[in-house]
Amino acid sequence: xxxxxxxxxxxxxxxxxxxxxxxxxxxxxxxxxxxxxxxxxxxxxxxxxxxxxxxxxxxxxxxxxxxxxxxxxxxxxxxxxxxxxxxxxxxxxxxxxxxxxxxxxxxxxxxxxxxxxxxxxxxxxxxxxxxxxxxxxxxxxxxxxxxxxxxxxxxxxxxxxxxxxxxxxxxxxxxxxxxxxxxxxxxxxxxxxxxxxxxxxxxxx
Length: 205
Fold this sequence. Notes:
By secondary structure, this protein is α/β, with parallel strands linked by helices. About 30% of the residues lie in helices and about 20% in strands. It contains six helices and eight strands; from the N terminus they run αββαααβαββββαβ. The chain has a six-stranded mixed beta sheet. Strands 7-8 form a two-stranded parallel ribbon. The model has no long low-confidence stretch (mean pLDDT about 95).
C-alpha cells in the first residue's frame, strides 16, 4: 500500500475509535496492477454506526464466543447488508475489485484471532488488522488466510472461550508490510506506527 493510504486508514480508524466504535471496511484495487490482489489502492470504510453486531440475531452468537464478548458489546462487527451490497456494487461499477477486508481491534493486539478466522470470508486471501490498543502507536498487520467454507461463521450454539486470542493454525500467516510513497509520507507513517507495525518502506522516485 502507499504510505498515504496507510496514513488515511490510521487517521479515520483513530477518529472512529475515539467515538467508541469499531472500524470495518474493504480494501480495493484495480485488476492488472502490480501486486494485485495482495496490494490495495483504496480503503472503503463501512458506517460504524450501522454495525449490526448487537442486533438480536447476532448478539447471542457473539456472546457465545466467550467472556470477552460478553464483557464488551463493541467487540465484533456485522456489516449492514444493504450498505454492504451498495458499496460492493459501487466498487465493481468503477471497474475495481475488492481484494481484502480490514478491521480494527480496540483493545487487542494486531493478532488474527480465532473469531477473525471464523468470520473471514474465504473468497479473500488476506486480511488487514489495525490495532488501536495504544492509540498513540497503532499497529498495521496484514495476514494471509487460507480457508474454505467448512468453518465460516459463528452461532449462538457455540460455547467458546478465548475467541479473541490469536488463531494458531497454519492457515494464517503474517504478511510483510510494505509501504511506498514520498519521503515525507514515509517518515510520518514510520513515526506514527508502533515498532511492531512499521512496514518496509520505499520512497517514490
